[in-house]
Design brief:
Blueprint: H1 7-61, E1 64-68, E2 71-77, E3 89-97, E4 100-107, E5 114-120, E6 123-131, E7 139-140, E8 153-160, E9 166-171
Antiparallel strand pairs: 1-2, 2-3, 3-4, 4-5, 6-7, 6-8, 8-9
């Protein structure tokens, strides 16, 4: 004769299934949150790396770097670009406007041709520092157009809302020697 399950056995079985299902769904939810956070961090790291690499290229090629009104201005000669108007002298500018950090590039061939892109969003402020390693007073917050030399190092600090400051350092290779203060 077949014996049927008692009500207590059925309740215990459903309780165990609910417990196991809850543990599985909790683990899946935690993993999906971790994956989302990892993807966001990966995206932020790629944005920072892209900014560092692009600006490093511009600064290495620059033959003039100045600041005015908290804007970093630079000029360089571009050799390769899909747009022929940008295969010549280029003037660039990094500036803060309406909470976004922008990069603009303007062709000297056709001044009407301007590329403007948002580099970082939700930026509260940006600071620039310049190091001239050929002089004793090496670091300054301005680099006037009257200076005949280019800075050896450029530091850009970006302060975004609710985040730590992002600090970038760019090296401008020089032909002349560097000054190293004695201890």
């Amino acid at each position: 004769m077949k014996r049927s399950f008692t009500l207590l056995e059925v309740l215990v079985a459903f309780g165990l299934m609910a417990l196991i299902t809850g543990l599985i769904f909790g683990t899946v939810r935690r993993n999906s949150l971790l994956n989302r956070q990892t993807a966001q961090l990966h995206k932020m790291a790629l944005e920072r790396k892209n900014f560092q690499e692009r600006l490093a290229t511009f600064i290495r090629k620059s033959d003039e770097i100045t600041t005015k009104d908290n804007r970093l201005n630079f000029s360089y000669f571009s050799e390769l670009d899909p747009d022929p108007n940008f295969c010549a002298g280029i003037t660039g500018e990094i500036f803060l406007e309406k909470g976004h950090l922008y990069l603009t590039l303007q062709s000297e061939i056709d001044p009407e041709k301007v590329r403007k892109e948002v580099i970082f969003k939700d930026v509260q402020r940006v600071t620039y520092r310049f190091a001239d390693l050929t002089e004793e007073e090496a670091i300054s917050s301005e680099w006037p157009a009257e200076k005949e030399s280019l800075p050896s190092l450029i530091f850009i600090d970006i302060f975004q809302k609710d985040q730590e400051a992002l600090s970038f350092c760019f090296h401008k290779p020089r032909e002349e020697g560097l000054f190293y203060p004695s201890p």
